[in-house]
Amino acid sequence: MQFAERVQNLEISGIRKLFEAAGPDSINLGLGQPDFDTPAHIKEGAIQAIQEGKTGYTPNLGIPELRDALSRKFDRENGLRYAPSEIIVTAGASEALHIAMQAIINPGDRVLFSDPGFVSYGALAELAGGVPSPVPLDDHLHIDLDATFEAMDGARAMVLNSPANPTGVVEPEETIRGIVEYADDQGVIVISDEVYEHFIYGATHYSAGRYGANVITINAASKTYAMTGWRIGSLAATQEIIDECLKVHQYILACATSISQYAALCAYTGDQSVVTGMRDEYHARRDLLAGGLQEMGFDFPLPEGAFYLFVPMDQDFIEAIISSGVIIVPGPAFGDKGRGYARFSYAASRDMLHEALNRIEQLL
Ligand SMILES: Cc1ncc(COP(=O)(O)O)c(C=O)c1O
What we know:
This protein is α/β, with parallel strands linked by helices. The chain has two domains: 5-38 and 273-362, Aspartate Aminotransferase, domain 1 (Alpha-Beta Complex); 40-269, Type I PLP-dependent aspartate aminotransferase-like (Major domain) (Aspartate Aminotransferase, domain 2). It has 14 helices and twelve strands. The protein has helices at 5-8, 14-20, 40-51, 64-78, 92-104, 120-127, 145-152, 173-186, 221-224, 239-252, 258-269, 273-295, 315-323, 350-362, and strands at 27-28, 87-90, 110-115, 131-136, 157-161, 189-193, 215-220, 233-236, 308-312, 326-327, 329-330, 341-345. The strands form three sheets. It has a seven-stranded mixed sheet with strand order 2-8-7-6-5-3-4, with helices on both faces. Strands 9-12-11 form a three-stranded antiparallel sheet, covered by helices on one side. Strands 1-10 form a two-stranded parallel ribbon. The N and C termini lie far apart (49 Å). The chain binds pyridoxal-5'-phosphate (PLP).
């Protein structure tokens, strides 16, 4: 049968394949999602929405109350001024990334993103007809500004992701500002994926949108509130950009799930200590897992964000770890420059992390 080339050429994510191969007593440190349950008051918001019959289509942009709450959140937490009309509620950050690319990429346009980087960026750029243009990180897994500026020549868009998946690296203000300002000079749009903004240990998050209007801010309730399955994200940008993105959103989705939008409203307007509670737990788990690996002789800088460690190790050892029943993701799943690394997620209980460390120690 004939299929569209742009789809046929895409590879299915290697991460999923690994999970499918996992045995029953495996410890899964491969997951990119919180292991916490969604907080009770958020679930209550959804239950109430169902009971009140709020189960029809919502406005394409999303329910006004949620866009108001997001507008206030951006102002309060990110120093960003987006009016409610400049925010689209999406089906997770995934849909937001998709519609951003569909709205701005023309055939052959180059889209920059970090290598190693989150698996979706290159695939979504290709689906939009663009040309994925991975830019290698520096030796410390930070964005290499010189290489980025060079690659920006003639590019259409750049995806910025801090805190980053898979490295956990948090970029400093001068990097975020430098990229946005240089991109503005070059006519490049910055797509800033900030889904891990709240999981930062000691460093500070800088939202790219503070430094220029050429930024599309992507965010989500998914990681922040342990709501990955609810599928709620957002895309915020200038009205001119929103008007184009809305066309794509309207035709592919109509609107985000009504019930999930009411749940997200409770998340953004409710008690924020649920977020700091999860952050503190991730912090302790990062120290536990990183400390254990470092004691075994693995040498890597402590990442300051997200819930990942990106650890240098050879392919044979990665395979031995996976064979021992500890699922981790080989670095090449995130790009060519991920070779020689493995991603460990610490979105798993401390008991699981202890057990994983025991199994790995036995392999040495
Ligand atoms: C960097 C990054 N962006 C976006 C997403 C997708 O988020 P969502 O579940 O909100 O679609 C993920 C999920 O792992 C991610 O790691």
